[in-house]
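User: I'll paste a sequence; please echo it back and then give the predicted structure.

Assistant: Echoing your sequence first, then the prediction.
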Amino acid sequence: MKTIFSAISRFVDRRQSLVFPAPAVIVLFLIVIIPIVFNLYLTFTKWTIGLGQPRFIGFDNFIELFGDERVWNGVKVMVYFSGLSLTLELALGLLIALYFNRAFKGSEIVQAIYIIPFAATPVAVALIWRIMLNPEIGVMNYLLQSVGLPPSLWVSSAAMVIPTLVMVDVWKWTPMITLIVLAGLKSLPHDPYEAARIDGASVLQIFWYITLPLIRPVLIAALMLRSLDNLKEFDIIYTITQGGPGIASETLYLYSYTVGFSFFKAGYGSALMVVVFLIVLVFNVIMNRLRHESQVV
């Protein structure tokens, strides 16, 4: 027995670089690599879940999606929703981080309360907002009417549904951007600010010529992190609208879910997921290049 343990010990000592990462590599292979490979295989097949076996059809799924009007609608909704929400979250996150970066009484309490939406579960947040946005019993219309404004249909209107969902998304995720930007602001050097104040620079000039250039890599990094979830937003949209009214709020990610798990067309749904992945990948490659360029400058 001692000989066996001694042999195992010598094997581990000689191959530490292989033995210790092995459990993590095995888990990664089982829960990440295998599903990705299987998904890629399904993109080249036609398979209705529960009916027969996958049948190889080559690139037919990708050819079909180019003529699918709901695909183009999904891309349009994705761009509209993500572009508006990411812009607002970045702008508001920066402004609020600048405010939190200055000392004021009770700042710790205010910041603790501020991050509550970020800490809440997305589905729970969506359920609460779904009740609040109800045209009949929701508190949002009550607040509008209490200040003399007409009630709104909110998510029941095709014209209002995306701005309303953006409002919920901004309320939920702006604290995340704020925390990232605030950490960047705390790490900025003090010397450039002291020199600018001595030279008589205004607050706006200090922000535009010192703070913004120094914080730009952090802003891009925050945008990259948020876009990974935002471009494939599902929880909030599905819980509040299920893509409605009609397909007015159906993003490409939500459409791929509908195709795969409502229509049970696994092959076509997998092809749509590949397109979503490529969109997210291209956006983040561009953002990563901009981040590196801003660091070099």
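The CA atoms of residues 192 and 210 lie 7 Å apart. The two ends are 63 Å apart (CA to CA).
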